[in-house]
Description:
Elements: E1 2-11, E2 14-24, E3 29-34, H1 40-48, E4 55-60, E5 65-68, H2 82-87, H3 99-115, H4 131-143, E6 149-153, H5 161-176, E7 180-184, E8 197-202, E9 205-209
Parallel strand pairs: 3-7, 3-8, 5-6, 6-7
Antiparallel strand pairs: 1-2, 1-4, 8-9
Helix pairs in contact: 4-5
Amino acid sequence: MLAIENGAVGYGRRVLITGINVAIAPKDVIFLSGANGSGKSTLAKTLLGVLPLLAGSRHSTFQNLAYVPQQTQFTVHYPFTVADLVLQGLPPLWPWAPRPKRQEQMQRALAILQHLGLEQKSGLLLRELSGGELQRALIARALVTEPDFLLLDEPFSNLDRSGRSGVAEILKRYAQKGGTILVVDHSDAIDKTFYRRFWEIDNGTLRELC
């Protein structure tokens, strides 16, 4: 369970959303929409505990929360391979870490890439990927941590139909295994039949749609 009571979110002295009273239960699949600049990403990072509440309280019993950022906030110009990116999701190893431990982490990264259909791309640089492949790689970095709560910020933006379908299928499989999901995106992003709850930010208020 993750809950915010009598909350307010924003950054600096600017308050974006007030009067927040929400609770996310295990296995919830939630879609959050709102206009650009309404505070969607700020609320998402506050739910994760990355940003502090400006007012109210936050409580969470989830053990492992994972975040998939917007592609526009992620640079592909660093000389990382796809496998390097996924390994970032695992605890860092000291240079003197034993070889079996390094092999174990690589096997774990390659297993999740295979699960997401990216095993043949593991050695490619990030800039060599399509938009859909990069989005799947970012999701792989999150899923390799085996999270019980997964939050994705605009995972369908700038993807073609095939890319959106691939990402949606990954999320469906994760939900079928009992995962909890919050997707932040625009209201016309995807087929909403997959979601069980819908939130909307409107004029500084977060409300749940029926």
